[in-house]
Amino acid sequence: MGGRVSRVFRNFNVENRARREISKEKPTAAPRHPTARLDAMADNPEIKEEVFRKDDRFLTLLKDVYVESRDPPVQVKDGGGERLPCKQEEKRLTKLGHLEALDVKKVPKGKISIVEALTFLNNHKLQPQIWTAEKIAAEYSLELKEVNSLLEFFIPFTVQEFPKETKKAIVGHKPKKLT
Q1: What total number of domains does the chain contain?
Q2: In terms of residue numbers, what domain contains 120?
Q3: Judging by beta carbons within 10 Å of its beta carbon (0-12, 13-18, 19+), is residue 69 exposed, middle or buried?
Q4: Residue 26 lies in a domain
């Protein structure tokens, strides 16, 4: 609503205001400062001649100067930084069940995909006697110490559903007020 009102005032008498502005005399530009070099060269032919004259003494000195440019020798890096792979890494097909659409198909040996990691962590959690660290290391082409650290520090989440009577007890509980 406010835009319509302001547009009316902005467009009021536009043509007359435009004609008035166009019919005004244009302001004269500020005088330019004469540049010393161009004006002096145009006025004095001696200066122009001095600029374009060749000086023999300077020419002989210039001929004596010889510049030789050499590139420094190229140093080969000692492989401390980035290297190109010298051979292709061996890859293995992933061992996926019903989740194969979610994950990659080939993984380098010694590495696992996320879905595989979650699968073997869950298998170990459900059946630790069958899915031992040695069996997981052999199955997924991993090092034993890495598998042991994975089993020790990573635990998959579990979903727990509380019975209805427990839910009531939790909902009915009032928190203590801090004073």
Answers
A1: 1
A2: 91-153
A3: exposed
A4: no
Positive or negative torsion for Cα 10, 16, 19, 21: negative
C-alpha 152/C-alpha 68 separation (Å) is 67
Residue 149 near residue 139 (C-beta atoms within 8 A)? no
Residue pointed to by tokens 């536009």: 14
Question: Among residues 150, 159, 91, which one has the least CA distance to residue 118?
Answer: 150
Indicate whether 147 belongs to any domain.
Answer: yes
Residues 144, 137: Cα–Cα separation, whole Å: 6
Residue-wise pLDDT for 130-147, tens only, equals 999 999 999 888 999 999
One DSSP character per residue, 107-174 reads EETT---HHHHHHHHHHHHH-TTTS-HHHHHHHHT--HHHHHHHHHH----------HHHHHHHHHPP
What distance in Å separates the CA atoms of residue 76 and residue 83, rounded to the nearest whole number?
Answer: 12
Tell me if 163 is assigned to some domain: no
- Within a domain: 104: yes
pTM score > 0.90 for this model? no
Q: Are 124 and 131 in contact (CB under 8 A)?
A: yes
- Tell me the pLDDT tens digit for each residue of 19-73: 988 888 888 888 887 665 565 566 777 877 887 888 888 888 888 888 888 888 8
Both tokens of 94, joined, read 């992933």
